[in-house]
Design brief:
five-stranded mixed barrel, five-stranded antiparallel β-sheet, alpha+beta, globular
């Protein structure tokens, strides 16, 4: 509890740094009753950590920025990196130049000294002075045989210096192998890190080797312990789909699922009927995983440790054993399955009039893909039964009304610009294509959001503690910076915009070149959504109460919400209140937020590595790109055709002296006046590809500057004479 209150105190002071009295801070946070003791403890803890100051008159304020910060370091493959500060009074990440990173690796907790950059660079950077905690005991990298011995260059740019390998069996490895290394000693200024190979993963570029490398690098789980498998097998053998005790039998109701073509773990199904008054009744039916996974069991512990399933290109790491995730829990067509159902009645304006919750049994009539559903909505029934076709059209009409209602309420809808890999029959990546974004995706999304909101509102109303999905309001300074940067792209946004203002901008630029950088800028200005029991709400969805309920096969947070709902349905809410203490939920929420982020990073990394291997055969080719960020090092250019970013170093822009103007987000040639701006379309050439480092080197297909303009001889002579006079001041004075 104390940690949650600490987080809310810091968020409030960051949002509005105006000093205020303790009693006023207490009132703003809604602290009452038993929470007052925890509030006092939180304030004392923050004071002891130096993160807030309580001055005369019990006035609370943030401390001024010191010249040192503590935080988590994230390296870039090019040597530089960033530190995410722990201190609340430091705005944004701290940039660490390549020569100032010392021996730090990605994930290390470090202390850095803040140094102000030159005026032409416009921001703060730092130098790492101490490493407090090491994040990695093992690394994945590429093995090299040098004259000095065997070395491993870590993947992903986590660490720029190679690791010296000890006790190697030369018969078991080859130069160039992808390997996993256990670190035995960390580097110093004079000595390299040393380690031993624990596993040979294969040759770089091979799908299996790259998948295994990402799994090991991110510490993901790819196997279940025997106890978990035994419990899963027992649950499968005990399952009786015809046992209707305590459940409504909906096997005769028309229910369908819509999922990606390669999905096997069908969490959710949908029905849509009319009540006696002619109102729509939406049924959202979710796999009842809580029936099969007992809380506190070995299987539950394994699921909790994983936190979520991980969907890597070419391999799924399920949260639950496949006999459950792809078997008796999955809502397969024609199979009777246990579900928890939410029934929502709507009026003509698509507003919820009533909500009902029940344990049910369903039997899906059709398993559709999003593309199949889209074909039906565009007039091609695709051989589906008439009642399924009619249901899809009704679902489409209701979802569009729900979407319109939620947009009026302030829901944000960003463009994802996501790509998916195209593979041949052998599993090799042969291309990249945009992900399907047809409207059936939105249909299912709207229905799931409605169910999530309904469950959160129910549990909140009955004061049953549960794991919420929270998305805090963005920091006012972040929104101000967003407004200033968008102006440089010719996009007008007020300095303190409402959600509706942001959505208006997103709609206006939807089909423009600037759509990609604008969406990225908006996303970066928002807070990250996390799991917590705190009643914070969900900013992007404009929901005051929200949780994840609809994917318990693949997310542990949803499984926890199912158990809380079951406590309500069984009249046993008091037991849930006793078992799910607020501080315990805080700890679990932090863990689940970390596992979710790790899964996202692993998926993104593997996809990037595989695409870069594809691009390694296309060095020298020209492709279209968009400038999505600028630094003193050069321009990050996104390649829409492939969904990856590369760097155009400033020296590749042409023979000029290029300076980064942070205020105007541009690179300016001092001698020619040539300029490269954020959001600018740019045709680039693929110069070099480094898949293991996640690095793509680009250059303009045509340089911004071909050659410097020649200066008139008379002007050049005067400048030369001026330089000679500066070199000989005594002679000049005489």
């Amino acid at each position: 509890m104390r940690e949650v209150i600490k987080s809310h105190i810091l968020h409030l002071l960051q949002k509005d740094s105006t000093p205020r009295k303790l009693v006023h801070l207490e009132q703003e946070l809604g602290v009452r009753g038993d929470l007052k003791a925890a509030f006092r403890e939180a304030v004392e803890s923050l004071c002891a950590q130096g993160r807030i100051i309580v001055g005369p008159g019990n006035v609370v304020r943030l401390p001024s920025v010191s010249n040192e910060i503590t935080g988590i370091f994230k390296a870039n493959p090019r040597g530089y990196g960033f530190i995410t500060p722990e201190q609340s009074d430091v705005e944004g990440d701290l940039f660490i130049p390549a020569n100032a990173a010392g021996n730090a690796m990605t994930g290390d907790r470090v202390v850095a000294r803040i140094v102000r950059r030159r005026k032409d660079e416009g921001r703060l950077n730092g130098e790492i002075v101490r490493i407090l905690d090491r994040a990695h005991k093992t690394v994945v990298g590429t093995l090299r045989q040098e004259t000095t011995g065997w070395l491993v260059q870590p993947d992903g740019g986590d660490f720029s210096r190679p690791i010296q390998i000890e006790g190697i069996n030369a018969r078991a490895v080859r130069h160039g192998d992808k390997v996993c290394v256990q670190i035995r000693s960390y580097p110093t200024r004079s000595e390299p890190a040393r380690g031993a190979i624990t596993q040979v993963l294969g040759r770089p570029g091979g799908s299996d080797a790259e998948i295994l490398a990402v799994i090991r690098r991110h510490g993901l789980h790819d196997a279940f312990d025997p106890s978990s498998l035994v419990e899963a097998a027992n649950a499968k053998s005990a399952f009786n789909p015809h046992d209707t005790r305590g459940r409504e039998d909906l096997a005769g109701t028309l229910v369908i699922t819509i999922d990606p073509p390669d999905a096997k773990d069908f969490d959710d199904a949908v029905s849509l009927t009319r009540d006696p008054h002619g109102q729509w009744v939406l049924g959202v039916h979710i796999a009842d995983v809580s029936h099969f996974v007992a809380e506190g069991s070995a299987l539950d512990g394994a699921a909790r440790e994983r936190g979520n399933s991980v969907y890597l290109p070419g391999k799924t790491l399920p949260m639950l054993p496949e006999m459950l995730s792809n078997g008796i829990c999955s809502l397969q067509p024609g199979q009777r399955r246990y579900t928890k159902s939410v029934f929502l009645s709507y009026n003509k304006d698509a507003r919820v009039q009533s909500a009902r919750f029940a344990n049910t049994i369903i039997k899906s009539k059709a398993r559709l893909t999003y593309l199949q559903a889209d074909q039906v909505l565009k007039g091609d029934p695709a051989g589906l039964p008439r009642d399924v076709v009619a249901l899809l059209h009704d679902m489409d009409a209701l979802a569009r009304n729900i979407e319109a209602r939620r947009r009026r309420a302030g829901m944000l809808q960003l463009q994802a610009f996501a790509n998916e890999l195209v593979k041949d029959e052998a599993g090799h990546v042969i291309g990249v294509q945009p992900e399907d974004t047809s409207y059936p995706h939105t249909i299912i999304e709207m229905f799931m959001v409605e169910a999530n909101v309904a469950v959160a509102a129910l549990l909140d109303r009955y004061c049953i503690p549960f794991m919420r999905r929270i998305h805090p309001e963005p920091d006012s300074r972040a929104l101000y910076r967003l407004s200033q940067t968008l102006r440089l792209l010719g996009v007008t946004l007020s300095r303190q915009p409402q959600r509706s203002d942001i959505q208006t901008v997103l709609d206006q630029i939807r089909d423009r070149t600037a759509a990609l950088p604008v969406n990225l800028l908006v996303l970066r200005s928002l807070e990250r959504a996390t799991y917590s029991p705190a009643s914070v709400g969900h900013y992007a969805l404009a929901a005051s109460k929200y949780c994840h309920f609809t994917s318990p096969i693949r997310r542990y947070a949803d499984l926890m919400v199912h158990r809380a709902l079951q406590g309500h349905l069984a009249g046993d809410a008091d037991r849930i209140r006793r078992l799910h203490a607020f501080p315990d939920l805080v700890e679990i929420g932090e863990h689940l937020s970390r596992t979710e982020q790790a899964a996202e990073e692993a998926e993104k990394e593997l996809k990037t590595v595989l695409i870069l291997h594809l691009l390694s055969a296309r060095v020298g080719e020209d492709v279209e790109g968009v400038v999505v960020s600028l630094t003193n090092y050069g321009a990050a250019v996104h390649l829409p055709e492939y969904g990856v970013e590369g760097l155009v170093p400033r020296e590749a822009l042409g023979p000029d002296r290029w300076q980064f103007d942070e205020q105007n987000q541009s690179l300016l040639g001092r001698h020619t006046g040539a300029i490269l701006r954020l959001g600018q379309a740019m045709r680039v050439r693929i110069v070099d590809v480094h898949p293991a480092a996640g690095q793509l080197d680009l250059a303009p297909a045509v340089g911004l500057v071909v050659k410097l303009p020649e200066r008139p001889r008379q002007q050049a002579a005067r400048r030369g004479s001026s330089r000679r006079r500066r070199k000989n001041p005594k002679k000049r004075a005489s």
